[in-house]
Amino acid sequence: MWIHMALIVLSAGFLLPIIYTLSLSFSGQGGLVSSSLGLIPEKLTLENYRIILMDKPFFQWFGNSALLALGTVFFALVVAVPSAWAFSRFRFPGRRGLLYLFLLLNAFPSILSMVAIYRLFRTFGLMNSYLGLMMVYTGMMIIFAIWNMKGYFDTISISLEEAARIEGAGTLRILATVSLPLALPAVIVTSVLIFITTWNEYIYAVSFLTSQDKFTLAAGLYSLQGTQYTTNWPVFTAGAVIVTIPVLIVFFLIQRFMVGGLTAGGSKY
Q1: Which residues form the ABC transmembrane type-1 domain (predicted)?
Q2: Of the candidates 84, 77, 256, which has an alpha carbon nearest to the alpha carbon of residue 155?
C-alpha cells in the first residue's frame, strides 16, 4: 500500500510540469511571469493556439518533420532489418565483436560529432538538406534498431526458415516471407521509437537547417523564442502541446505491440 502511494505521489510530481505547460498554453500573455503558480489560468483563451496554427507556418513545419521522420524510419529499417537478421542467423568471424563495437560507438554523445558532420555537410553540399539530416538520423538510430530486432529474430524458431529453404526459398525470400512477418511487433516498435526520436530531435535540426521554409517543428518552435525580452511563452507552449499530439496518437495505436516488441528484443544477445 505504501509503495503504491509513494509511486502515485512520484508520478504526480512528474506530471506537474506537463500540466503546468498545458495550463500556460491556455493562458494570456503574462501567464509565465504571473505571481500565481496555480495550474488553472486566470483567463482561459484559445488565442495562443490560433496564433500558432494560423499566424505561423506550423503546418509547413509539421510536414517537414513528418518527411524527415518517415524518411529516417524507411532508411533505418532498410539497413537494420537485414543486418539484424544476418547477425541473428549467421555465425561469421567478428560477429560478436562488431555488435559490441556498435554499442561502444553508441555510447559516445552525438554532440561530439557535430564538427565532423558540419565539415562533411559543407564538403558535399548537404547543408540545409533533408537528405543530410536523414543520413545523420539513420546513423543515430541504426544501432538501436539492429540490437532490438536481432533480439527478436533470436526468438523465432530457425526450423521455420529451414523448412522454407527445403522448399526452395532463397535467403531474401526467407527473410521477406518467413522471418519478417513473424518479427512484425519488433519492426513496429523499432519504427515508432525511431519516428519519435527523429520527430523530437532538436540539436541537428537547429544547427543544419538554415532556411525557415525547411524548419522542422523543433527548429520552428525554437525560432518562436526570439530573445529573453520578446518570447511569448504561452504561444510557445501551445506549439509544444500540439507537437506531442501525433506522438501520443502513434503510441496509443501501437501500444499492444510495445511490451512484446521491447521485451523480446532485449531477451537475448
Answers
A1: 62-254
A2: 84
Residue 50 placed within a domain = no
Q: What is the mean pLDDT of residues 32-38?
A: 53
Cell triple for residue 234? 504561452
pLDDT tens for 81-95 read 999 999 998 888 888
Domain hosting residue 22, numbered range: 1-45
* Model pLDDT, residue 231: 62
Q: How far is CA 49 from the centre of its chain?
A: 24
Domain count, the chain: 2
pLDDT digits (tens, 9 = 90+) for 148-205: 899 889 888 888 888 888 888 888 888 888 888 888 888 988 999 999 999 999 889 9
User: Are residues 35 and 79 both part of a single domain?
Assistant: no
Query: In whole angstroms, what is the distance from residue 267 CA to residue 154 CA?
Result: 9
The reported pTM is 0.84
| pLDDT mean over 44-73 | 91
Give the span between the Cα atoms of 102 and 224, in whole angstroms: 37
- Judgement on whether residues 37 and 96 belong to the same structural domain of the protein: no
89: its cell numbers: 542467423
In whole angstroms, give the CA distance from residue 163 to residue 179: 12
Cα angle: 206, vertex 66, 84; to 5 degrees: 95
Residues 39 and 98 in one domain: no
Domain membership of residue 76 (yes or no) is yes
Residues 6+ apart with CB under 8 A from 251: 192, 196, 258
Helix ranges, 201-265 (H): 203-208, 217-223, 233-253, 255-265
Mapped onto helix, strand or coil, the DSSP state of residue 149 is helix
Among 108, 68, 74, residue whose Cα is nearest residue 208:
68
Tell me 43's DSSP state: S
